[in-house]
What does this fold into?
Amino acid sequence: MIAKHVPMKSVRKSDFAGLVKYLIDEQQKRERVTGVSVTNCHAERPDAAILEVLNTQAQNRRAESDKTYHLIVSFRAGEQPDAATLQAIEWRICEGLGYGEHQRVSTVHQDTDNLHLHIAINKIHPTRYTIHDPYRDHKTLGELCEKLESEYGLQRDNHQAQKRGAENRADDMERHAGIESLLGWIRRECLEQIQGAQSWAELHQALRDNGLEIRERGNGLVIADAAGTMVKASSVARELSLAKLEARFGRFEPSPERLANQADQPTRQYQPRPFRMRVDTVELYARYRAEQQGHGAARTVEWTQARDRKSRLIEAAKRSGRLKRAAIKLMGGPGLSRKALYALTSRTLKDELNQIHQQYRKERQAIHDKYRRQAWADWLRRKATEGDSEALAALRAREAALGLQGNTIAGNGGQQKGQGVEAQQDGVTKKGTLIYRVGASAIRDDGDKLQVSRGATPDGLEAALRMAMARYGDRITVKGSAEFKESIAHAAATADLPITFDDAALEQRRQTLLNEITAKENRHDASARTDRGRADRGRIRHPGPNATHPTGAGRRVGSAAAPRATRKPNVGRVGRQPPPEAQNRLRSLSQLGLVRIASGSEVLLPGHVPDHLEHPGAQPDDGLRRGLARPGVAAVAGRAGPAPASSALAAVDKYIAEREEKRLAIFDIPKHRRYNENDSGAAIYAGSRQIDGHSLALLKRGEEVIVLPINEATARRMQRLALGDPVTVTQGSIKMPGRSR
It folds into this structure.
């Protein structure tokens, strides 16, 4: 576990609101933000907490430093602490830094190779309005991480500072951008040659041979290349500091020939190129350079077009204003009326100009984002997301790409095309790991292994196994904890997947579970056949008094009389005729049903009325009936099982689409949208619905209605609520007010 403070380079750019909005922005990814919490604020929603923090920061007018503290807590690849552990770690770290009473917003991100926690802290105390800057926070964070790793059984990291700031920045550039830094290039290519110099002249010559130059700057020395990129000499090696070099060679002697005026070309020189990878990236890097160089010209063209369009709109608005004033002048009339019309025209023109300028700012920002300069690794990730297989291979060939760790599923059949399940790609990490969404689960693929990173439910594990079958064949290798292997064996046996595990013990466990499930199903089928046999024997008619019965000695006429109940007249078999209340219905009436809305006009009923009514009637019990084993009756397929859980979100989207379509025609229908993680808090119960076999709860907040899928138990409990009752939503679960005695 690593905890790192991210300082702002410029205090003027510090913005708590902008930081929180970035942290909670899902960026069209479901796996980016998986948890949001607000601490020490009256509000529970991040947008309301932002206002509280900004008001608190405004109370301190003396502080000139940054009032926001941005902290990142990152975990090792493969580690997935639960929500309670993450909350405890967040509290312990903030308490250790002295921010236990300070307002903060925390988010959990899982869209990278390492699960990480972002904490945006208000450095201004909420009651004293004083600013708090922790002393030597890097040392405090290292000590806290060591304790937390030991207490929670996390993998240990090195928390002893061994590099200076420039070295850390160079390492960050190489790791995140994928481009070799000048400092790293000097260390790898020519440091030994530089250290072997025995005089100032030899040192200058060694540097010139590599396209470098050493100069005085401030109180020390810097090493620069031909492009002007500089690094501190002491950051390259401690032996190259000004004091140590002067102790060896005497007073500093500048180079007699500047690098820019050097006639001979150096034997080699630094170029910002990608690291050497296991695959050839020459063509990819050429495409990257060409695209980045072409962005400047394309951005200028589009900005010019947007500016010209703005000028035309402004001129048209002003022309319209002049025509209106001329018309008012020709109208004549009382002076007071003309004055009011002139004022209205001026206000209208001002509003139009403001709207034009606002639209231009949006267009300019969109153009800037479209042609934003990207680092090499970010460009590779974007291309891989768009489906470029070469870019994906380059990401996976990076030195930092070590593959998935922890609970993984792999195979020996080699990578094949195909997924085996309906999976939607959610994103690509900088190490080339593809993230797929399958229902409520997230499956990661690094090219060699699969991992269920979130939502390791039986359905998610089954989806991962089916994906592994499609990619690696029917022989599967499972690595991880004993609990994970047991869950995998259960999922494989329950779904009756035609696979074989490499682990002999795991394969034996799968077969044992499969035999138990098969035996249980056989017992159930035998019991069902016995019950059907009893029912069939109970439906045999009793013969009349003159019926003949075969016996062992032949037939005998005139047997004993049948029971009295069998001789009742006009008695048919059960189910032939409907009960009295079900007779003479208007089911076949050729007329469309209409429903009356008090505040609107008459509209056609939806396709399935009970699913859209506030209080639907009793549901059909066909799913509880056994199939009829008699001639002339065909079983109705598909009635016995519930709808799959993976279609719950589809039911939500279907209902929202239906309501939004009606909202276009009926003005008093509020906007409906899907529930997300940021909707935790108080809401008003607005009813429940049944769509495609799924229960949906309608929660009103402000002018919107939030649609949340719920299970059957919650749906039964919510039947006791009345419209308008307050409820509380916490991470998708609904808490209802208790009953008073």
